[in-house]
Design brief:
Length: 854
């Protein structure tokens, strides 16, 4: 029994004048040899550690507040408080303190608060005059009382003496009776004096006076006195607001009268502090610290009492999730929980932990899942606020719930997918709700706050869940708004005879540098600046939403490694993102560019191969060229991207940029970035040529090349196998849909036409032939690269083994020869150029190409 009676919480007052909970334990008073006196000891109930060891100093002023609080100061800026679970325990310790100091336990404060300047002034004062003599409480004495109250505020000792006098004589209730008389008589002057008196009593900062003033009997008259500010021409109508406008809504009837009274009192006192009292000046800011503490401890009590009443909370949850509950009632229930969670923020970490665990046990997350999907905007907004409290408190708790939920529910109704859909469907033009939800999603998918235990890793489990069940919902608006289906079906998948007749290949998808026939949209119309009207979202709200999604995806690139890498490769996501480089909204184009910059910043060769094979620098360079001479953020961001590649010397990207785009970029001379890339490229090419010349010719035999390729295939196994598997499914119908000879025939005609168009470019291109018989090609346009290599195509064909009876080898060799030379430009990074040609024949064969378009 004594344990419960002596159970306390220890609080300290921080710099912001807020009480910090230092822990819960049991208090005792005992003699401590080291401190040479009777002391208060508090030992933690969890582990018995010492939370507090404080000597009862004979000169320290201890205050007893609200029957269960003892407050004192141990230093100038170090205030302490003990909050007792039971009044009996508080009385016992208070008696011990008074016994040490030789005081009567009936007093509420053991010492007068005297500063040094006043100590000398009052040290000779006779003990009989320890209280201030108050004027009689009459109407004609109000001015005198007001002057007295105002005059003591600058003196701590006189404030204490006045407080004691007011308390002992029951003076406040007498003053409030005078207020009623003045109001009935419409005595304006008396009412103005009462305003000054009541305001001054509040600034005495005494908890014992607050308990009288804020009681049910007195509080409305106190508010009434504060309506008659002399500075106002007309009195405010605060009582009318509190009694008529402000309605106390009981979503579920509260049967505990003490709890109900505490809720009313806290609301009204908060109203007095926030609305009625003027903002305190720098000289008055500490006058109301006890009022702040009064509200704080009230809120702690309210949350604790509600939390302990499981019947009440269970009923609230039952009604919240009941389909029969009408919309108005559900709105009130959600708003109740929102306010309940807001109150909980005043709790200290240990109490807040217990609070949210109670809510989780009662089923707050399933309830939120239901209400977040409702049509009512107010309900959704309140539910989002509650969800944010839960995520900020424990992301792991939310993650655990959604992973368990996934085993029993469809993807559509998963909590995270509901959150994503709310983000996507936000009707606010500024997307305020979407921004908040995006921040919560970011917290949930952040590996930094994921736990790792010996048996399982939350990170791997949750990320597998998220990419399997949720990522498609998040990226749906992005993929929809960058859809190229109307073009890709004709370009990327050779599904019918007409496509075989025209040999339609999309250069920026399959890196085959051939020009599309004239009877289909030109590449410039698909990739260039005219594309906005067809694909790019010009709606500002849509653009903002896509920017938020890109921000999340960029975060994933930085923190999720292989999960996001697999997703980008499988969905060809970067190509879709780069469509947004054509948006008229520069911020969206920058988001797309930032996404690519993060990918390149990883310096991952798998990403680099994906970028070069897909020719994904083309939209970026188009944006740079379309930007013209404008010196803006887009210009700087693009140049910084290429500067990073140059400084970090990413060889595969450097070679790709120089070989394919240098001709378009060489005119940009206000920075040395592109010339620097060209220099890096040529230096690397010279090094490779020197290595080639130093290798004996016997090592360049066919047998040795096949061995080298086998080693490379081990390194690239998963990448190449995926391509082969996907490629087979696309190529099979192609070979059956057209006689075998038509494909190479039409391709030869096509190549001759294109060769004639670009003969001039061909003459101007520098050429170097290595001992292996390949050519470096420096070109910007896709067609130039192909034109320069038509001769080389024949030499490759001449070395190709005879076609098999079904003709498929002939098709493969013919088509591969057209792209070998251009791909061969990357071979400057490899010792054996012929070896690379063989690799390219396999990598760029028709049965593998469709992978990047899938």
């Amino acid at each position: 029994m004594s344990d419960t009676r002596r159970r306390v919480k220890v609080y300290t007052l921080n710099e912001d004048r807020q009480w910090d909970d230092r822990g819960t334990g049991h208090v005792s008073s005992t003699y401590v040899e080291e401190l040479k006196g009777m002391s208060l000891l508090v030992r933690a109930e969890s582990d018995g550690s010492l939370l507090l060891e404080s000597k009862i100093n004979p000169n320290t002023a201890y205050q007893k507040q609200q029957d269960t609080l003892i407050v004192w100061s141990e230093a100038e800026n170090y205030d302490l408080a003990l909050s007792f679970q039971e009044k009996a325990g508080c009385d016992e310790i208070w008696e011990k303190i008074c016994q040490v100091q030789g005081k009567d336990p009936s007093v509420e404060v053991t010492q007068d608060l005297i500063d040094e300047s006043e100590e000398e002034r009052f040290e000779e004062m006779p003990e009989t005059s320890h209280l201030i003599d108050l004027p009689t409480c009459e109407l004609n004495k109000l001015e005198e009382i007001a002057d007295l109250v105002t005059s003591v505020l600058s003196s701590p000792i006189r404030r204490e003496k006045l407080a004691l006098a007011l308390e002992n004589e029951g003076y406040i209730k007498k003053l409030l009776q005078l207020f009623q008389a003045c109001e009935n008589l419409e005595n304006t002057e008396g009412l103005h004096h009462l305003y000054e008196i009541i305001r001054g009593i509040l600034f005495l900062n005494k908890a014992t006076l607050f308990e009288v003033m804020f009681s049910d009997e007195c509080i409305m008259d106190v508010v009434g006195c504060l309506e008659y500010d002399p500075a106002l021409a007309q009195p405010k109508r605060h009582r009318e607001f509190l009694t008529k406008t402000a309605k106390f809504k009981e979503v579920i009837p509260i049967t505990d009268s003490e709890l109900r009274q505490k809720i009313h009192q806290t609301y009204r006192v908060q109203y007095i502090q926030d609305i009625i009292l003027p903002t305190p000046s720098v000289f008055e800011e500490n006058f109301l610290s006890t009022l702040t503490s009064f509200i704080f401890f009230n809120k702690v009590e309210i949350v604790s009492m509600l939390q302990e009443d499981e019947k009440f909370l269970s009923e609230v949850f039952a009604q919240l999730t009941d389909e029969a509950t009408d919309d108005d009632k559900r709105r009130e229930l959600v708003n109740f929980f929102k306010e309940f969670c807001a109150f909980s923020q005043t709790l200290q970490p240990q109490n807040r932990d217990a609070f949210f665990k109670t809510l989780a046990k009662l089923g707050i997350l399933p309830a939120l899942e239901i209400v977040m999907g409702m049509d009512d905007l107010q309900v959704r907004s309140a539910a989002t606020d509650i969800f944010s409290y839960l995520v900020e408190f424990s992301p792991s708790m939310v993650r655990e719930f959604v992973m368990q939920e996934a085993q029993q529910s469809d993807d559509d109704i998963l909590l995270i997918n509901v959150v994503i859909e709310q983000m996507i469907c936000d009707t606010d033009p500024e997307l305020g709700g979407a921004v908040q939800l995006m921040g919560l999603l970011r917290t949930l998918i952040d590996p930094e706050n994921m736990l790792a235990t010996t048996n399982k890793t939350e990170k791997s489990e949750f990320l597998n869940f998220f990419y399997n069940h949720c990522m498609h919902v998040l990226t749906a608006p992005l993929l929809t708004n960058t859809s190229e289906d109307r073009y890709e079906k004709g370009f990327l998948f050779l599904k019918s005879k007409q496509y075989l007749n025209n040999v339609i290949i999309l250069p920026n998808a399959l890196h085959s540098h051939s020009t599309p026939p004239t009877n289909i949209p030109q590449v410039d119309n698909i990739v260039g600046s005219n594309k906005n009207s067809m694909i790019c979202p010009d709606n500002y709200q849509t653009a903002q939403l896509l920017a938020l999604i890109l921000e999340l995806l960029t975060f994933c690139v930085e923190h999720h490694t292989y999960h996001i890498k697999n997703y980008i490769m499988n969905k060809d996501l970067l190509r879709r993102v780069l469509v947004l480089m054509n948006s008229k909204h520069t911020f969206l184009a920058l988001c797309a560019l930032r996404f690519m910059r993060r990918i390149i910043g990883l310096k991952d060769e798998f990403y680099n191969r994906y970028i070069t094979k897909g020719n994904l620098f083309e939209p970026v360079i188009n944006a740079l060229l379309d930007n013209g001479t404008r010196y803006n953020l887009l210009n700087s961001a693009v140049i910084e991207l290429f500067e990073f590649i140059r400084v970090e010397d990413i060889k595969s990207l450097t070679a790709h940029i120089v070989e394919n785009f240098y001709k378009a970029l060489e005119s940009i001379e206000y920075v040395q970035t592109f010339k620097g890339l060209k220099t890096k490229y040529e230096q690397e090419k010279d090094r490779q040529n020197q290595k080639l010349n130093s290798v004996p010719s016997i090592l360049r035999s066919n047998r040795f090349r096949r061995d080298a390729k086998a080693l490379e295939e081990d390194e690239e196994m998963w990448f190449n196998e995926d391509e082969e598997e996907e490629g087979k499914t696309v190529v099979a119908p192609v070979e059956k849909s057209k006689p075998e000879d038509d494909f190479p025939d039409s391709y030869e005609k096509f190549m001759e036409t294109k060769k004639a168009k670009e003969s001039e470019d061909k003459e101007n291109l520098p050429k170097r032939t290595s001992s292996g018989g390949f050519k470096f090609t420096f070109s910007h346009s896709a067609s130039a690269a192909n034109g320069a290599n038509s001769t080389n195509s024949k030499s490759v064909m001449a070395q190709t083994p005879p076609a098999s009876s079904n003709g498929s080898s002939s098709k493969t060799a013919t088509l591969a020869s057209s792209v070998t030379a251009t791909k061969g430009s990357l071979v400057g990074l490899v010792d054996y150029p012929d070896d690379e040609e063989e690799d390219d024949e396999e990598e760029t064969s028709p049965r593998k190409r469709p992978r990047l378009g899938s």
